[in-house]
Amino acid sequence: MVELNRNHSCSRQAAGAGASSLRTPTAAEIIRLLQLEPHPLEGGYFRRTFASALRCDGGGRPLLTSIYYLLTQDNPVGFLHRNRSDILHCHHFGAAVQYLLISPEGSLSEHILGPDIRNGEQPQLLAPGGWWKASRLCSGDHALISEAVAPGFDYADNEIATEELTRRLGPALRALLASYLKPST
User: Fold this and answer.
1) For the whole model, what pTM was predicted?
2) CB–CB of 27/124 below 8 Å?
3) Bridge partners of 123?
4) Which of 37, 90, 103, 144 has a 20 to 30 A CA-CA distance from 69?
5) Complete DSSP assignment for the chain
6) Which residues are CB-neighbours of 49 under 8 A, at least 6 positions away?
7) What is the CATH number of domain 25-180?
8) Domain ranges within the chain, ordered by starting residue
9) Strand partners, 61
């Protein structure tokens, strides 16, 4: 016989505790409950949640990986970086997140990942492989998103931007991107 988890939110709602009784968790609660850790390169907090058993690139790389990713008031920036793989970002809850994407040709675009689709926010955002991306918490305490990476993420494919890169992009982009650079250690 199968036992159902009666503590699950669907069971609570069916018992009369409607969605209005749900409260968005704080950043500290999300970090604890989802077992997130500081991201070692990009800023924010993360935890890998999935790595496909299916392989590509000669069998070594997962076809797809995914992570939870959290930006907070104390850690509000995802530093400018690029990956070889395509990355699909999905907003779960919390504040909106501003993304800057820079194409391989140097075109800059801004996107807002968030729940307010009536005002132009997007619940999903694709950062194509080979494009630079940076993110910033727009306001509020935090934003929780997921990232699905295909082919699967590998740190060898992750490049963090430097001041030298921003110099090559020109003075206008350099000034805009300065706050998205990872501080030198």
Assistant:
1) 0.86
2) no
3) none
4) 103
5) -PPP-TTSHHHHHHTT--GGG--PPPHHHHHHHTT-EE-TTTSSEEEEEEE-SSEEGGGTEES-EEEEEEEESSS-EEEEEE-SSEEEEEEEEES-EEEEEE-TT--EEEEEESS-GGGT-BSEEEE-TT-EEEEEE-SSSEEEEEEEEESPP-GGG-EE--HHHHHHH-HHHHHHHGGGSPPP-
6) 66, 67, 68, 146
7) 2.60.120.10
8) 25-180
9) 56
- Per-residue pLDDT tens for 33-76? 999 999 999 999 999 999 999 999 787 899 999 999 999 999 99
Q: What residue type is 65 in one-letter code? A: T
Task: Give Cβ neighbours of residue 35 (< 8 Å, ≥ 6 apart).
Answer: 47
Q: What is the pLDDT of residues 106-151, one digit of tens each?
A: 899 999 999 999 999 999 999 999 999 999 999 999 999 999 999 9
**Which tokens go with 113?**
């990942």
Q: Encoding tokens for residue 178?
A: 């300065």
Taking CA atoms, 67 is separated from 5, 53, 93, 147, in Å, by: 25, 16, 15, 5
